[in-house]
Amino acid sequence: MRHRRSAGAVVVAAVAGLVLSACGSETEGDPVGAGGPSAPGTSATVPAPSSTVGGSGPAPQVSDPVDVAALEQNPCAALSDEQTQERNLEQGESEPMSDGSPTCIYRYSDDSGSRIRFVQVQDFANGLDDVYARADSLAVFEPTEVEGHPAVITQTHQDDRGDGFCDLQVGLTDEYVVSLMAQIDEASDDYPQGCEVTEVLAGDMIHNLRGQA
């Protein structure tokens, strides 16, 4: 469950469950930098940093960017139909955030209420540099890597990862970030592994955009 192609692990860990699950629910907030209220385990509004050129700031550069054209046209192009079936997820549903940022919600098919929201945050015009610029205002800021792409695990007000929440910011290019916001319910076999779930699905997204799904 901890690696992209450990589909067996992901599904095994969730034999009755799903992918390692997802984020969102009525307590769901907005991603880092987006407008609107926030809730435990989600990101909230933070003052925007001064403008810079993506890739020239503090964040690691994306050495092997992917083509994000499909995502720009349809946020639910993040995962293929085969991937959602493999991960025991329902088909994605497009639903914009309050600030207009395109999103796609993937719900677990186990009726646990767990889900993952993929968000294309409009405030991140400078890619992960904009996420790094907000580091001091976040309760959790942990750089990581997914399939060779720089990423950051974040939490806004407090660390709720033990409750199944996790936000993962992934740099697909130096100027393009997708936020995966996970909420794993206690009813899911994947609870409380929200961060593992987001990393698995972020890896799936990267492979899908490269035509390797």
Descriptive account of the structure:
Keywords: Signal. This is DUF3558 domain-containing protein. It comes from Prauserella halophila. This protein is an alpha+beta fold and 213 residues long. The chain has a seven-stranded antiparallel beta sheet. Residues 1-17, 20-30 and 33-54 have low confidence and may be disordered. It has helices at 7-13, 69-73, 81-86, 128-132, 194-209; strands spanning 93-94, 103-107, 115-120, 140-146, 149-155, 165-173, 176-183. The longest helix is centred in the last third of the chain and has 16 residues, at 194-209. The protein is globular, with a radius of gyration of 15 Å. The two termini are 17 Å apart. It has one domain (7-209).
Quaternary structure annotation: single chain
Q: What coarse outline follows from CA principal-axis ratios?
A: globular
Question: What percent of residues adopt helix (DSSP H or I)?
Answer: 10-25%
What is the string of helix and strand elements? Answer: HHHEEEHEEEEH
Stretches where pLDDT falls below 50 for ≥5 residues?
A: 1-17, 20-30, 33-54
Total tally of structural domains: 1
Q: Approximately how much beta-strand content do the residues carry?
A: 15-25%
Please give the order of strands in the largest beta sheet: 1-2-3-7-6-5-4
Distance between the termini: 17 Å
Mean pLDDT: 80
DSSP helical segment count = 5
Structural class: alpha+beta
